[in-house]
Amino acid sequence: MQPFAPMSDPREPSPSPSDQDAEERPSCDAPLEGRLDALTRGVALESLESLLGEVLGQEAWASACRRAYAPIDRPLSFKVLERVAEELARDEEAVALVGASLAVRVRTYRMLAASGRLGSFLGEAQS
Fold first, then answer.
1. pLDDT tens digits, residue range 23-49?
2. CB 95 within 8 Å of CB 85
3. CA-to-CA distance for 1 and 56, rounded, in angstroms?
């Protein structure tokens, strides 16, 4: 038994995936337009509720909002939503995972908004 698989010759072409495998994977060349959902307080809260249940999800959201000095039940700017996400990320276990994921998503949206490209990724008409 060999401890490592033998290396293939780099001059040989890599085996091509079957047609079925290729159909299941999205193309890297495909446009991303319309593939992002709007990022809102409701989306963040839904993530927590689906993970923790309605009551615990709402409690985790309210606690993070209080720590971030953010309104619990109003729409939030990306900047404020990012603060709430960072507070969630400081929480325990599953809540921290939701917070970290939300923080990455908010930063991505902020960068797209700053570049003027967010609307195209949300499937909106650009002005």
1. 444 433 444 444 556 677 888 889 899
2. no
3. 52
DSSP state of 14: P
Please report where in the chains the tokens 């293939």 appear, as a residue.
8
Q: How open is the CA angle 47-51-53, to the nearest 5 degrees?
A: 100
Do 58 and 45 touch, CB atoms closer than 8 A?
A: yes
pLDDT digits (tens, 9 = 90+) for 76-123: 888 899 999 999 999 988 899 999 989 998 888 888 888 887 777 776
Distance CA 30, CA 72 (A): 38
The whole-angstrom separation of Cα 23 and Cα 46 is: 31
Find out whether 26 and 61 touch, Cβ atoms under 8 Å: no
User: Is the dihedral angle over the CA atoms 75, 80, 86, 88 positive or is it negative?
Assistant: negative
As a whole number of Å, the CA-based R_g of the chain is 21
Q: Rounded CA gap, 118 and 122, in Å?
A: 6
State residue 67's pLDDT score.
96
Rounded Cα gap, residues 18 and 20, in angstroms:
5
